[in-house]
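RECORD TYPE: protein structure
NAME: Protein MgtC
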Amino acid sequence: MTAGHAFWETALALSVSFILGAIIGLERQYRQRTAGLRTNVLVAVGAAAFVDLGVRMGGNDGSVRVIAYVVSGIGFLGAGVIMKDGGQVRGLNTAATLWSTAAVGAFSGSGLTGEAMLVALFILAGNTLLRPLVEFIDRRPLNPETTEALYRMHVICHPENVSTARDLLADELEHHHYPIQDIETLSEGDDYIELAALLVPTSADPKELDIVSEHIARSPDVISATWSVSTTN
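PREDICTED:
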């Protein structure tokens, strides 16, 4: 292969990765995601450039080694966009998009333009066509009997009764065979304190939890007791 021919093949690979990365990035930019247009373009072009260099310097064996490094390297980049916001983890979809965009670049750098377009199409479909389905599922009422989730028993009491309320909370849950992972203080003020016991089970009977909360609420040392369930940590 002549130097001129190799140059134009590289130019084609980088152009394809640039265009496909831009298409993926436009959708991300429109939705105001952390990794938008420029990030996805750079990931695609960078992956294509490294793979193309591996092909030119080491043939097929060289490209395979470079692709392996690209996959692991993008993993570190994706970890940088994942953030814990209070009780929720954000950025997982953005990290997955970056990882997939690198695959588009790797296909382009390997000269597999059609495959690169196909991967880009599936990435766009995952980020757009599946969105209504995700929103429909998220809007459905949570079924505590069948959903693996986090269960908490909440108790509100006066500050001077915290120790008694904590013991009562642990005793009642243990009596009903609900082991506790931890008891945390959710809010603290001059007039009252809210405690929450995080249960170990990922499924529970709502009727049993109602009974436990009613028993706890009868104590003169407790202002109120209730329970909650959530799907996020």
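COMMENT: The helical segments are 3-30, 37-79, 92-109, 113-128, 131-139, 162-175, 206-217.
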